[in-house]
Specification:
Oligomer: single chain
Distance between the termini: 190 Å
Order of helices and strands: HEHEEHEEHH
Radius of gyration: 50 Å
Largest sheet: 3 strands, antiparallel
Number of strands: 5
Helix content: 10-25%
Strand order of the largest sheet: 2-3-5
């Protein structure tokens, strides 16, 4: 069916007439605070405990209005013989709101949830140089961040809540162990008071034995002669002798 000529104009005039008959309501600001939506981009709050000084927000800011200073300090080893580590310590975190265009990129790229939108908007200054707010002021605005809105009834449950719920159900279905009268996680003991468990047989620990019988004791070796045996001295052979009685 073809539309009636002039029907669009009639619908527009009907909206105008309905609006003209309504009473105009003016909110008396600042006596009456406006009812802002929960995701209002008023100002940026800093949750300093979550900041690791990764500098990702300052690098991704298209206006370069985030200023971060830090230093490194050495953390001693947690265990004996461990290795010392170094970490970044935040010294300064400031945002120049005279340059900020409220794009929200810094909040989106923060991997540790250290930046949040706050509906606070009353931070006007008479000097533009006072619009650079340091981390103390950003931390105060953090407490004005509203709670996240509830999920849609048909939306899936967040993974964090699902994991926590499954862990709680698993712990609830696990049967508890035997009660410890001492209140510590000690091993069960027998009535005599010693720890229960496999015990070694009394006596010396058996070792490998010779099945053929006891090993014979070693005999002392025979002494070796230290000097060669002595022989009686031999006389040199005698020469020819003269016959008796013919001596001169």
């Amino acid at each position: 069916m073809a539309p009636i000529p002039g029907s669009g104009l009639a619908k527009g005039l009907a909206v105008t007439l309905r609006t003209m008959t309504k009473k105009t309501v003016t909110e008396q600001y600042p006596d009456t605070q406006p009812d802002l939506p929960p995701r209002t981009r008023g100002v940026i709050g800093l949750f300093e405990e979550n900041c690791t000084v990764c500098m990702l927000c300052a690098r991704e800011c298209p206006d370069w209005c985030i200023y971060i200073d830090s230093h490194k300090e050495t953390v001693p080893a947690a265990t004996p013989g461990g290795r010392e580590r170094s970490r970044n310590v935040l010294d300064r975190f400031a945002i120049d709101f005279s340059l900020c265009m409220y794009c929200g990129i810094c909040i989106e790229v923060c991997p540790f949830d250290a930046l949040f939108w706050s509906p606070e908007f009353e931070y006007a200054e008479t000097d533009i140089r006072d619009l650079t707010h340091e981390r103390d002021k950003l931390r105060e605005w953090m407490w004005t961040v509203p709670a996240p809105p509830a999920l849609d009834p048909g939306a899936e449950e967040p993974k964090e809540i699902t994991t926590a719920r499954k862990t709680a159900e698993k712990l609830a279905t696990t049967p508890p162990g035997p009660a410890d009268p001492t209140g510590s996680n000690a091993e069960p003991t027998d009535p005599a008071g010693s720890k229960a468990g496999p015990t070694a047989p009394a006596g010396p620990k058996p070792g490998p034995t010779n099945q053929a019988g006891p090993k014979p004791e070693p005999t002392e070796p025979r002494p070796r002669p230290t000097e060669p045996p002595t022989q009686p001295p031999t006389e040199p052979p005698a020469g020819p002798t003269a016959p008796e009685g013919d001596a001169p």
